[in-house]
Amino acid sequence: MRTKVSKVILILSFLFIFNFIANQIVIAENIDLELERSSTDEEVSDNINQSEQDQDQDKDQLVAKEVDSEDSQDEMTEKNEEKLKESDEHDSYKEEFQVDNQLDQSSEGLAPEKSEEIDGEVINFNKTIIESVPFEQGTKGDHVVKLKKNLTKLGIGNYPLNPSDFYGDSTTKNVMVFQRYYGLDVTGVVDQQTLSTIETNVNSRYQVGQRGDHIVQLKKNLTVLGIGNYPSNPSITYGDSTARNVIRFQQSNGLIENGIADEVTLAKIEDMLILRLGTSGLHVVNLKQNLSKLGIGNYPNNPSDFFGDSTKNNLKRLQTYYGLAATGIADNETLAVINRNVNSDYQIGRKGVHVVELKNNLTTLGIGNYPANPSGTYGDSTARNVIHFQNSFGLTQNGIADEVTLAKIEKLLQSPYRIGQRGSHIVELKQNLTKLGIGNYPSNPSNFYGDSTVNNVRRFQLYYGVHPSGIADDITLNKINDALQSPYQIGQRGSHVVELKKNLTKLGVGNYPSNPSNFYGDSTANNVRALQRYYGLNVNGIADEVTLAKIRETLQSAYQLGKRGQHVVDLKKRLTRIGIGNYPLNPSNFYGDSTVNNVKRFQGAYNLNASGIVDEVTLQKIDEVYRSRVVKIFLDPGHGGRDPGGHGFGVNEKNIVLDIALKTSDYLLRNYSGVDVQLSRVDDTFIELEDRAKLANNWRADYFVSIHTNAWIGKGEGFESFIHTTRVTKEAQVRQKEIHDYLISRIGIVDRGKKQANFSVLRNTNMPALLIEYMFIDNYDENKKLRDQSYRSFLARITAEAIANSFNLPKK
C-alpha cells in the first residue's frame, strides 16, 4: 500500500514539473514576440550575430550558396573583361529609357512598380529600392539575387539558377564589366543609371517572344550583313533561330553573346550597315552593282561583298561627280543620290513624253538623228546617243540621262550663245573667232547668232576637240579665251619665243640665226602662218595649242636623225624605188646623215619644207609618188613546205622555183628603178593557194607572176604560160604575149604556147596574173639545166628583163 502511494506522489510531481516547464516556454515565446514588435533593430542585430555564428560554424555552407562560391566567378569575369577589351569601342546609341520601358514622364525616369516578367526572371527596381537597399559589395538580399539573374540574362557572369543573395567580389567585377560594356561610369556599384541600363536591355523589344515590324527590320539587317537566311519578307516573331543568329553576330563582332539585340548590338549593326572601308555584306554588292550601272568602276557581274580601297575611290568619284562631299563613305545623302539616278526615268525601257522631250533636246544639240516626232521609248539607240553626249562633254558615260546629264543639257539649251540669240556678246564672239582664223566676219559683225555662226562655232569646236554642237558653251568659250591669251602671239617676249623659233627652223620654216631674239614679231607670226598652212591648221599666226601640239608631234617623229627601226628600212627602200638614194637591197635600220640628205632632196624636189625629218606631209608625198611611179610586181614561187611540187632525178620543184624567184627579185631591184617586188614566200614554207592571192591583193600589186616547172611521166618538154580562162583583160593578154615571147626567144626550147586555165592563183587575184611553166623537171635534158645554178640565174635574169621590158622600167 505504501509503495503504491509513493508511486502516485512521484507521478504527480513529474506532471507538476512538466507543466511548469511548458508555462516557462510559453512565457519566453511571448517575450520574444514582444521584443520583435518593439525592437526591429535588435532583431536585425540578432540576425546578423546569428549569421556570423553560422559562418563561423560552417563557412563552407555559406560559400556553396554563391554560384559554386563567389571566387568561382573570377574566371568568367576576367573573360568578360578580356572580351570587352578586345571589342571595338562602342558609341552606344540609346533610345529614351522612358519610351523603351513605357514609363510615365512624371516618374522622372523611374521604373514602374511592376514589370512584365520575361522568362520569369526579370525584376525591375524603383528608386525607393535603390535608395533604401544598397547595391554594392558586402550587401545581401533578394535584390542581389535579382541583379545576378539579370546580369546572367545579359550574358555577364555565370551564376546558377538560384544564386546567393550576397554581393561579393565577383559580383562587383561583373557589374564593372557591365558598366564598361554599356559605356557607363565603371564603379562596381549599381547606381540608378546602371540599374536603368540593365532594365532597358533586359526588357529589350529584341528578344525571344517579342513581335513587331522592328524585328522584321532586324532580320533584314542581319541578312544584309550575311547573318541568317531569312526570306525577303521575314516574320515579325523573335524566335530561337533569331536569337541564335544574334549570338552569331555578337560572336563574330566580339560582343557579349546573350541572344538579345541589346543597345550595343543594335549600335554595332547600325554601324556595320554604313558602307565604308572594311565593310562586308550584300549591301556592298548592291553598292558596287549600282556604281557600275552609273558608269563608275569596272566591277564584274557578281562583285565581291568587301568594301576595299578601290570601292572607296570609286565612291569618292561618284560623290565628286554628283557634287557631294568626297568622303568615300556611303552616307544617307550619297545613297539617296545613287538611288535616284539608278532608278532614273531616263534609261532603257522607260517610256513617256519626257523621253520625247529628251530626244528633241539631243537633236537640238546635234546628237542623234531623230524624226520631228520621235517615239516615247528610251531604247538602245537613245542610250547610245546619251553616251555620245556624255562623252562629248566629259561626263560619266552610263547611257542614263542622270541628274548631271540633264543639268548639262538644260544649261546648253539655255545658253545665250545659240541660234536665234542676239547681243553684244555675240559680236564679241564673232570678232574672237576671226582673230583665231575662223570665219570671215567684217570688222563690225551683226549681233545675231545665225546659221553661219553655228557653223563657224562648230569649226572651232572640231578644231580644238570640243563636241561640235554649234553652241558656244563654257568649254568652247574657255578654249577661245585660252587661244586669245596665248603667250605665242605678236608683242609677246620670252625664252618660250626663242624655243619656238628654233623649233620652226628645225622644221624648215623661217631662217632664224642660231640665237634668235625673244620677241614675237610680224615675221614670227608669218612663219607660224606658213607652218599652219603647211600642216592644214587654222591660219591665225598664233602658236595656239593645236599648232604647238603639231610642232611637238613632228619633232618627235620616228623618222629623223638618230632613230632606228624597221620603218627606217622601209623608208630607204621606198626612196630607192622612186629614185632617191642608192641604198643596198637590205639597207640598215639607222637614220643617219645620208638619210637626212636624201629626205631633204625629196622634200626639195616636191616643194616641201626641207627639214630632213619625214613628217606626215613628207610621208604622204612619198607614198603618193611611190604609188604613181613604182610598179609593184608580186612573185609567187610555187609549192613549198609539205608540198614538193614536181619531182625528177632527185630534185623537187619547190626548191628550183624558189631559187629562180629570189634571183628574179634581186635582179629587178638592183638593175631597175621604179619597181618594187614582194614574194609569197622566201623560204621553204607552205602557203595555201588562196593565201598567195590574198597577199598580193592586200599589197595591191600591179602584176602577179607565179613561177613553176612542169612534169609529165618523163615525156614532156618545153615552155608554156597561162592566164585565167574567163577573167581575161586586155592588159593580161598583152603582158602574157610580151613576157612569153621574150622568154621563149632566149630559152630556145619547145614553145608549148600561150594558154588559159582556171588555176586558183589566176582566179583569185585582183590584178593581171601570169603563171609560167619553165621546163619539165622529169625530162632528163631539161632537168640537167634546171639543176645548174648558173642556168637558174640565167632564167631569173631573163624573167626580170621580160617583166621590165613589158612595164618599160628604166635601168639604173
UniProtKB/TrEMBL annotation:
It holds the Pfam family Amidase_3. One of its GO terms (biological process) is peptidoglycan catabolic process. InterPro entries: MurNAc-LAA_cat, N-acetylmuramoyl_amidase_3, Peptidoglycan-bd-like, PGBD-like_sf, PGBDSf. Residues 42-118 are annotated as: Disordered. GO terms for molecular function: N-acetylmuramoyl-L-alanine amidase activity. Residues 56-67, 76-97 have a biased composition (Basic and acidic residues). Signal peptide: none annotated. Keywords: Hydrolase. The keyword Ribonucleoprotein does not apply. GO terms for cellular component: outer membrane-bounded periplasmic space. SMART domains: Ami_3. Residues 693-804 form the MurNAc-LAA domain. Residues 99-108 have a biased composition (Polar residues). This is MurNAc-LAA domain-containing protein. It comes from Globicatella sulfidifaciens. The lineage of its organism: Bacteria, Bacillati, Bacillota, Bacilli, Lactobacillales.
